[in-house]
């Protein structure tokens, strides 16, 4: 198990980021999806939790076969996806990722949002894994991202919003920018397979870092597109984009609810701690030992000669 706490600051308020995050996730998912590859939305509906109150529950399938490293493709089937389940009680969210093909694999993320520049060192002090974590502060303007994700229009060192007059972000912007907020993410990655655990957990955290940097850069770079939208408007945008994304993937659209919970709301509780391994640990059929097949015989075990119809000759 490898635990890290990521801190990502934004030149926004927590309330502004609530809309910007939903917009960014929907647009980014649509852009990154292609037929057979991308983000499939399974469920998106209001959710009532006895502890955290009213929120939004979403379930997605991340089809990622082509994005795996070469060493992982050796053991992963061609049709491969990760299940994402998220409980959003903003400004507090819980997200978990599991894969039925890899029963020992899971990612568990707790997120809290605050109006500060990442200075709260005790925000997860009540968590069991808090003592073993590594803190990683990410700079959306100056930290490097993979070249394939870089776009000139999303370079925040030169970007200035026309609607908010915020930006460009200069060196040390987190210390002297107003407003500023921070997304605190406590990320637990588990891959309990001997010989591969360290390599896989480090690879997953590297991928998470890249996704967090890219997504938060885009949330601010697209601020002129979503700034001023209400929650109802961004939920409607989310619904339309998700339907378009599923069609792009060649999947029927899911049932998506954006209304308030009914009198009898869903009361499914979010997991209180990191998810356990899935129910079964049996390997897929094609990884198990070969099954015995009934042996076919190419010839009868005994040979019967036909009886002769000739009469024996009489010797003199």
UniProtKB/TrEMBL annotation:
Pfam family, one: IP_trans
Functional note: Catalyzes the transfer of phosphatidylinositol (PI) and phosphatidic acid (PA) between membranes. Binds PA derived from the phospholipase D signaling pathway and among the cellular PA species, preferably binds to the C16:0/16:1 and C16:1/18:1 PA species.
Protein name as it appears in the record: Cytoplasmic phosphatidylinositol transfer protein 1
Ranges of Polar residues composition bias in the record: 297-316
Disordered: region residues: 266-316
MF terms (GO), sorted A to Z: phosphatidylinositol binding; phosphatidylinositol transfer activity
SUPFAM superfamilies: Bet v1-like
Similarity comment: Belongs to the PtdIns transfer protein family. PI transfer class IIB subfamily.
InterPro entries, sorted: PI_transfer, PI_transfer_N, START-like_dom_sf
Top-level taxon of the source organism: Eukaryota
GO cellular component: cytoplasm; nucleus
Catalytic activity: a 1,2-diacyl-sn-glycero-3-phospho-(1D-myo-inositol)(in) = a 1,2-diacyl-sn-glycero-3-phospho-(1D-myo-inositol)(out); a 1,2-diacyl-sn-glycero-3-phosphate(in) = a 1,2-diacyl-sn-glycero-3-phosphate(out)
Phosphatidylinositol transfer protein N-terminal domain span: 1-243
Keywords: Lipid transport, Lipid-binding, Transport
């Amino acid at each position: 198990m490898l635990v890290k706490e990521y801190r990502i600051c934004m030149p926004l308020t927590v309330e502004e980021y609530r809309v910007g995050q939903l917009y960014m996730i929907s647009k980014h998912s649509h852009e990154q999806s292609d037929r057979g590859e991308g983000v499939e939305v399974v469920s998106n509906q209001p959710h009532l939790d006895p502890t955290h109150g009213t929120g939004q529950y979403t379930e997605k399938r991340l089809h990622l076969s082509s994005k795996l490293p070469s060493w992982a493709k050796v053991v992963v089937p061609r049709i491969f996806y990760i299940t994402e389940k998220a409980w959003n009680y903003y400004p507090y969210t819980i997200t978990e990722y599991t894969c039925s093909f890899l029963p020992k694999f899971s990612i568990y993320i707790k997120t809290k949002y605050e109006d500060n520049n990442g200075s709260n060192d005790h925000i997860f002090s009540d968590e069991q894994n808090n003592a073993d974590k590594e803190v990683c502060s990410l700079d959306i303007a100056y930290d490097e991202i993979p070249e394939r994700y870089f776009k000139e229009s999303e370079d925040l060192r030169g970007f200035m919003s026309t609607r908010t007059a915020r930006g460009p972000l200069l060196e040390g912007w987190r210390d002297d920018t107003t407003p500023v907020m921070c997304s605190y993410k406590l990320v637990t990655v588990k891959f309990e397979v001997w010989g591969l655990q360290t390599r896989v957990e480090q690879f997953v955290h590297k991928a998470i870092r890249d996704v967090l940097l890219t997504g938060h850069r885009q949330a601010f770079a697209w601020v002129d597109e979503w700034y001023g939208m209400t929650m109802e408007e961004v939920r409607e945008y989310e619904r339309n984009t998700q339907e378009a994304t599923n069609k792009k993937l060649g999947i029927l659209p899911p049932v998506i609810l954006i209304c308030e919970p009914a009198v009898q709301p869903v009361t499914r509780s979010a997991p209180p701690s990191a998810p356990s391994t899935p129910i079964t640990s049996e390997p897929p059929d094609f990884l198990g030992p070969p099954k015995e097949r009934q042996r076919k015989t190419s010839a009868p075990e005994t040979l019967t000669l036909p009886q002769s119809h000739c009469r024996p000759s009489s010797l003199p």
